[in-house]
Amino acid sequence: MTRLNREITIQAPVGKVFDFISKPSNLQRVWPSLVEIKDEKSQLGGGYSFTWRYDWGGISLVGSGRVIDIAVSQWIVAKMSGSVDCTITWAFRNLNGATRVFLTVDYQIPLPIVGWLAGKAGVKLNEQEIDTVLSNIRSSCERGRGPIALAARVVDSD
Q1: Which site among 43, 101, 109, 120 is 20 to 30 Å from 5 CA-CA?
Q2: Quick one: CA dihedral 141, 17, 109, 52, positive or negative?
């Protein structure tokens, strides 16, 4: 299992950032390799269920996802299953009108599909992808104001 952590400060209110991230179809607009979100349905208690298609370095991955834990303007935990099993956790902190977003992605590279070496290269590909996602979310929520602030740490438990 690989864990990828990222943080970013967005110059927008926490409610606006949370609302944007909580809707899976919005993520398709800012996540370059997330090719498709379909069958998006509101769940009782908050969040959504959906199906997804992801292009991972030319390999098409498909599956379904659902929010398994949500607290408005505080956190969202989504579980994906299918070609890749992963858990995506978003946490939000109000910073006097700005928002600090914490993103953790726990996933297993599909080694039988791509092999050990490609799996290690895939971690780097995923790091770059997540940086782009957060930058795009920031742009969408801020409308292009201020410098980007990213912090990163990758932990490979293999």
Answers
A1: 43
A2: negative
pLDDT tens figures, 42-77: 998 889 999 999 987 788 889 999 999 999 999 999
- The domain in which residue 51 lies consists of 2-156
Number of domains composing the chain = 1
Going by pLDDT thresholds of 50, 70 and 90, the confidence category of residue 112 is: low
**Residue 69's CATH number:** 3.30.530.20
